[in-house]
Amino acid sequence: MKTHNVDSKGFYGEFGGAFIPEMLYPNVEELRNNYLKISSSKSFKNEFNKLLKDYVGRPTPLYFAKRLSEKYNTKIYLKREDLCHTGAHKINNTIGQILLAKKLGKKRIIAETGAGQHGVATATVCALMGIKCIIYMGEVDIKRQAPNVARMKMLGAEVRPATSGSKTLKDATNEAIRDWINNPVNTHYIIGSVVGPHPYPDMVARFQSVIGEETINQLQEIENKSKPDYVIACVGGGSNAAGLFYPFLDNFDVKIICVEAAGKGIDTGESAATSILGKTGIIHGSKTLLMQSNDGQITEPYSISAGLDYPGIGPMHANLFKSKRGEFISITDIDAMKWGLILSQTEGIIPAIETSHAFAVLDKKKFKPNDIIVFNCSGRGDKDLDTYIEYFKL
Amino acid sequence: MKTHNVDSKGFYGEFGGAFIPEMLYPNVEELRNNYLKISSSKSFKNEFNKLLKDYVGRPTPLYFAKRLSEKYNTKIYLKREDLCHTGAHKINNTIGQILLAKKLGKKRIIAETGAGQHGVATATVCALMGIKCIIYMGEVDIKRQAPNVARMKMLGAEVRPATSGSKTLKDATNEAIRDWINNPVNTHYIIGSVVGPHPYPDMVARFQSVIGEETINQLQEIENKSKPDYVIACVGGGSNAAGLFYPFLDNFDVKIICVEAAGKGIDTGESAATSILGKTGIIHGSKTLLMQSNDGQITEPYSISAGLDYPGIGPMHANLFKSKRGEFISITDIDAMKWGLILSQTEGIIPAIETSHAFAVLDKKKFKPNDIIVFNCSGRGDKDLDTYIEYFKL
Amino acid sequence: MNRINETFINKKNILSIYFTAGFPKLQDTMSIIKELDKSGVDMIEIGLPFSDPLADGPTIQESSTIALSNGMNTNILFDQIKDLRSITELPVIIMGYLNPMIQFGIEEFCLKCKECQIDGLIIPDLPVDIYHDQYQSIFKKYNLHNMFLITPQTSEERIRFIDEVSEAFIYMVSSFSTTGAQKIFGDETINYFKRINKMNLKAPLLVGFGISNQETCRVASDNSDGVIIGSAYINCLKSSGIKATKKFIEGLR
Amino acid sequence: MNRINETFINKKNILSIYFTAGFPKLQDTMSIIKELDKSGVDMIEIGLPFSDPLADGPTIQESSTIALSNGMNTNILFDQIKDLRSITELPVIIMGYLNPMIQFGIEEFCLKCKECQIDGLIIPDLPVDIYHDQYQSIFKKYNLHNMFLITPQTSEERIRFIDEVSEAFIYMVSSFSTTGAQKIFGDETINYFKRINKMNLKAPLLVGFGISNQETCRVASDNSDGVIIGSAYINCLKSSGIKATKKFIEGLR
Ligand SMILES: Cc1ncc(COP(=O)(O)O)c(C=O)c1O
Ligand SMILES: Cc1ncc(COP(=O)(O)O)c(C=O)c1O
User: Which of A82, B15, B388, C228 fits C16 for a cystine, CB–CB 3.0-4.6 Å?
Assistant: First the structure.
C-alpha cells in the first residue's frame, strides 16, 4: 500500500523535498539529520509531553457538540485546540521546535507570521525558555493584526516588518529565510506550518500529531471506537489539518476533508483555494501546489482570514489532493463568517475565522446520523473580534 | 474549631446573610432551598463535571514556573485558570449556575459584568444551552471593554448599559438586581463572584472549588504532597480566590494570601483595597466589608483592572480578614502592570491585569526555598491588551 | 400605638406620599412636608437617599443621586426635621436602606428618630427575619414601627409571619417590580389584591409601587386601606416644583 | 566546452556582472548587455526576475519587483535576447529561480537558452543533489552549464561533490548572507577564501555576494579567479542609469 506519509527523501508522492539555496543547506541538513533522533529520544519526549500537559493544557477536550449535532442530525465532535495556551494549535509545534533548537544549541529564534498566531506561539516559547526571538511579519499584517503584535511585544519578541512584495505572510517568510541565510550558525527558524523544505513538513506534522493521537484515545473513551468517519480541518499551510489527520493518513475508513478559503469566490481573483487555483511549483523550498501566474510568479492569495491566505499548501496536502485521498472543499468569506456566528450562538464557542471555514462544510455535505465527525477547532476567535465586529456591525 | 466556611444561616462569622428586599425573597429562597440539593445530586454532578472537562477544558494544569522559581528561589506553581474556555475562572461558576437554572426551569438569564469576563462566561453558557441572556454592564465599562462586549454580542447576548451612578460594575449589579425584581419567576440571576445574598457566596465558592480540589490532586502527583505552603490569589469579589482556598480554609498549615488592588495607592482616594479602606456594611444583599463614605454611601473604587474595582469583597474574605486567617496585601497599578510584563517575559504567559496583582506579592514577601506556593493564574491578558499597549507604549 | 396606628383607626382610603430628602434642593425637606400637610395627605414618607437604591426604579434612583450630590446625608436630614412637629401632626416615616443606618449606628438612628418624633421606618433591604431577631427590640424602645413589604410572590406562610411582626401596616407591592409609575393595573394585580384581602390580616394594607393617577389610586384603595405614591410625586416635583403639590394631590382623590 | 570555460582558460581576474532583466525599464536588456560588453567585463549574468527571490538581498529584490511590474517575463526575456550574439561574444548566464523555469517547462527553457546561445544557468534554489539526479542530463543536451554556490558553512565533502558536478565555475558566496553590497571583507571571510583555495578544486572559483568596490574586488580576485557583482551594479543603474556603466566598471578594476 502506498503511504500518504513522507518518504525517506522528504517527499509525499511527487511533492516536498528541499529546494533551498546552498546557503541554507547546512541549517536544513543539521535539522534533517537530527530531528528524528532528537524528537524520538526519551528525554525529549518527556519534556515535550510535560510541557504540552502542564503549559499548553493538553489533552485538549474532544467535545461533543450536542446542539449542533441535533441541528445537523449527525454526531459532531470538536477537537478543542482553541483551548491551547495562546489560543490555537500553533503552540504544539513551537514547543517541539524550541526544545529541538535548545538541543541543537541555538541561541536565537526567528519565525514568520501572518495572522500573528504563530508569532505569538513562537514568542511565547522563547519567553518560556529565555531565548531571543525575532518575528517577521508583513507590514500590512502588522496593521491588520494589532492585538497579536502587542502580544508578541509583551512577550519580549522583536517584531520586524516585512516591507517587500505584498507585505504579507509570503514576504514575511522570505524575510525570515533571508535572516536564516545571514545567521546560519546560532539561529533556528521555527516555521509555523507544514510547509517549507524537508524536514519541516514532516517535523511540524509530527509535533502536531498529538491532536490526532489524543482524538483516538478520546473517541475510544467516549464512543468506544478508535476512529471517526470523518476528520475535517481548515488548510492554510496545513498544520492543524496534518495534526488531526496524521494517525489516519493511511486508514481509508477515515475520510479526510480539507477546507480551503475560497475568499470572495473561486473565480473572482480574490481567493486562496490553492488546490483548485494552484499548480505544481516551488515555494519556500518545497515542491507543492501553489497559486502562481502562468509565468511562475507567485500570486498573492486573498481570504478574510489572515491565517488561510498562504499561496501554497503543504506537500502532504498537495499529495492528499492529487491522490484523491482527501476531499477538498472551499468556503467563501461569507459562509465562513456566517459559521463563526453559528458556532458562537449554538455552542458558545467563538472560533477563529480560519476555523469557521471548516464548520461551513456542514452546509455543503450531507452526513449520516451515525457518522462520527471530528472537526479540528483549531483556534479561538479573540484575534478576529475586530473583523467579526466590523462584518456583523455588532 | 471555628470553621471559615459558611454557617447554616449563610454567615461567615459576622459577615454574609441575605439583606434583600422582599421582592427578591422568593427567588433567593428558591435558590437557598435548592442549590445544595441539586448541586449534590448525581445527575447534576455528572453533567457539571462533564462540561468542565469537555467544554471548559478541565483540569487546568498546575504548572511549575521554572524560571520564576529560580529567580525567586522558591517553588512557584501556577494554577492555569487562564486556559479555561473564555479565558478565566469565571466559567466554572457560570456552568454550575446555568445547570442549576435549567433544573429550576428558568427560561431567561441575567448577569452583571465589569471587565466583561463574567458577561462573556455567562453569554457562553447561555449560547451552549440555548437560553436567552441579558448582560448588564456599566456604560463606562462598555466603552472600556469593547472586545468583551463584542464577544457577548457574537454569543447572542443582549448587553444592556447601566446608566445610573458611576456607570460601572456596582451600577450594573444594581440594574441586574432590579431586573430580577421585575422578573422573579422565569429568570435566574447569575452572579459572577462570591458576593450578593446568601446562598450566592457559598454557591459560587462551591462551583469554583474545583480549582482547589484539582490543585490537591496535582500537587500529590507532582510533589507527593497534598497541600501547598501558600495559596495566593487576587480578590475582586473573591471568586477565584475562594475557589483556590476552598479546601484549605480550615487547614492552618496552608497560608492564605489575598491580594487586593491598591490602585494609585491606599491613601490617594483612588484605590480598591477594601480590607484596608472598607468598613462593615451592606452591599448587594450581603453584610461584608465595603468602601463607603462616613455616611454609608457606597463609594466608587478605582483600579487599573476592571475586574478588581468592586467596592466590596465577599463575606468569606471579610471573615478571613477579620479573623486574620488570611493575609491581605494590596498592590498598586504600577506594580501590577510591571508583573504583567514580568510574567509574560519570564514564563510566556500574559496574565489578566487582575491576575498580575497576585504575582506582585513575590516582591513584597520573602519565601523559603522549599515553600510550595500556588498562585491562581485566574485569567489571560487578551482582554487587557489595550491597557498594556497604552501603558507600556508597545 | 403611635400616629400611624391612629391614622388607620381614624381614616379611610389613606394617601401616603413619598419624597426623597434633598430633592430637588437640599433645603426643600420642610417646605415639602408643609405642602403635603396642607394638601391633605394622610401620611408622609421621607426618603433618606442612598447611593445604591436597588429596590427603586429610575425615578427615585435619580432623585436620590441628585439629593446626594446636593449634599444630603443622615445628619443633615435629622437636623432639618428636628422641628418636624411644629409643622405637621401627620404620621411621618423614614424610608431608607440599611447601610447608611448601620453606619450612623442603629440605636443612634432610632434615638434621633424619636427626638424628631418620627413614627416609623421602611427599610427595604432589612428582611423581616433579621428584623425580628436583631432589630425589633431596639425599634420598640424608641416607639418606632417598622413596615414590611409583600409582593405577589410572597407565600401565604410568610405573609402571616409578616403580619404577626408588623405593628402598623403592610406595604403591598403592586406588582413584580421596582418602584415606578404605572397607568393601570392588570387583572393579575387585582386578583392578587383580592387574594391578600381574603386573608383577613390583622395589619392594614397600603398599596405601593406603580400608583400614579386617579385610576390606579381608586383601584388600589378599593382593595386595601390606601395607597403610597412615590415616583409620580417625584416626577411632579421635578417638572412643576413644590408649589404643584396641592394640585397633584387633588388630582389623585 | 563553451564560452564560460573558454573565458576561464583565456582570462584572469574575471569580472562578471549581474543585472535584473526588465530593470530599470522593460526594454533595457540589450542596451545593458551592449554597455557591459563595451565596458570590458568578462561575463554577463541576466537575472530573470522572480516574485520571491529569497536568496537575494533588498537591492536585487527591489529591482525584481520593479522588473515584474514593468511586465518582464520569461517569454519576453527570450524574445529580447534572441539576437544576443549579434551584440556580444561574452559568456552569458541566466540567473533565476526554479519556479518560473518549471512553469515554462525545463526542457523548453533549455531549448530557448540554446536558441539564444546562453551559456549557463545559476538557479539558487536548485540544490546540487536534485540537479544531479534530475536535471543534469537535460542541461547537457542543450550545452548549458549549471553553476552552484558554496558558502563558509558548506562542508568539505559537499564542496568536493559540487566540484565534481560543476562544469564551469563555482560561485563562492563571500559570507553568510543574501546578496548585497559590502565595503570590506573581514578576516573570517579571507580565511575562508584561503581554506577553499587550498582545496585545489578542479572548477575555477568566482566570488560573489557583497562585492561593491575596488577594495573588495581586489581581495576577492587575489583569492579566486574573479568576482561577480550584482547589487552594486543595480545600485549604479538605479542612481545613474545605463550610461554610467563604463565608469562603474572602470572604478572596479
Ligand atoms: C486558528 C488557526 N487555524 C488555522 C490556521 C491555518 O494554519 P494551518 O493550516 O497551518 O493549520 C491558522 C494560522 O494562523 C490559525 O491561526
Ligand atoms: C481574570 C480575572 N481574575 C480575577 C477577577 C476578579 O474576580 P474574583 O475576585 O471574583 O475572582 C476577574 C473579574 O473579572 C477576572 O476577570
Answer: C228
